[in-house]
Automatic annotation (TrEMBL), chains A, B:
This is Putative phosphoesterase AOX59_08315. It comes from the Bacteria. GO terms for molecular function: hydrolase activity, acting on ester bonds. Pfam families: 2_5_RNA_ligase2 (PF13563). The active site is at residues 34, 115. Belongs to the 2H phosphoesterase superfamily. YjcG family. A motif (HXTX 2) lies at residues 115-118. The keyword Ubl conjugation does not apply.
């Protein structure tokens, strides 16, 4: 099965971000707004059971933290994805890094950039328009994070949550 | 915020069910295939924290169980919803009942019928056609259940998972 690990911002933040994604992100209906910690990877049942134990340990070692978003950015020219830049904080890098080591498969191809995608797979013209208009907006928020989620992907590409990992609250 | 409590069947079962839902269920893109344990209810942050503790206790007291689906059924004439009938087993009734008592708000208006919706909000003509054709299909499966999920609803009506409760594995 194909899994991924993400952080979901709180409902008010998800609602605000979805207003943009609805227009510009074809993945809008496949997954709620999220910060990816680990990109999609394959694991069988036995492997994922071991990783779940790892994720519980990781969650127990992590304290709740605050994320901040202050600006819109883009991965262009690599891809024309437009995203909300999550201010880089050690907690996010630590989580992402831990999930590339030990029992976890290594599947990170670019250096880790914490972000929330709001537009992707646009034509070049659309991209320029949308990036221009989104850059002018004052999108700012802070949000308290106290958990991450393990998701798996269905055949229709929708991601479903398999398990939540609440910081300091997991029984191993 | 608006919450709900559901069981998600395993991925192979979800994929099979989605093949029907895609055509007949307008909620297809709002939530993966599920067995509702407790219909949508409202709770503030303080209330939901208390209920989460309750749900951990409930999960810890529940052993994994097997659900079986053997036939298609309908809520007509009350609504023209078509569903997969989940064979009634005590574990499901116990879970649903517990979530109507104690600190949980009582919000069950009909007697509890464990089911997985595959078609709803059809016109009367569509309903007759679809029910006729689905009734002829041999939809049968069994599935192991070891957890339930607490979801909340976003402004766009999509349900996101807030927390998973794995039977016998929750730290309270």
């Amino acid at each position: 099965m194909r899994y991924g690990i993400v952080i979901f911002p709180s409902k008010p933040v998800q609602d605000e971000i979805n207003a943009y994604r609805k227009r510009y992100d074809p993945h809008y209906s496949l997954i709620p707004p999220h910060v990816t910690l680990k990109e999609a990877f394959d694991a069988d049942d036995e492997e994922i059971d071991k990783l779940i134990t790892e994720m519980k340990h990781i969650a127990n070692k992590t304290d709740p933290f605050t994320i901040n978003v202050n600006k819109v950015s883009t991965f262009a020219p690599v891809t024309n994805t437009i995203y909300l830049k999550v201010e880089p904080i050690q907690e996010l890098f630590d989580l992402a890094e831990t999930m590339q080591s030990g029992k976890f498969p290594e599947n990170q191809t670019y250096s880790y950039v914490p972000h929330i995608t709001i537009a992707q797979k646009l034509s070049q013209d659309e991209y320029s328009d949308v990036y221009g208009s989104l850059s002018m907006k004052n999108i700012q928020f802070e949000d308290k994070i106290d958990r991450f989620h393990l998701l798996y992907q269905l055949d229709n590409d929708v991601w479903t949550v398999y398990e939540s990992f609440v910081f300091g609250k997991e029984y191993v």
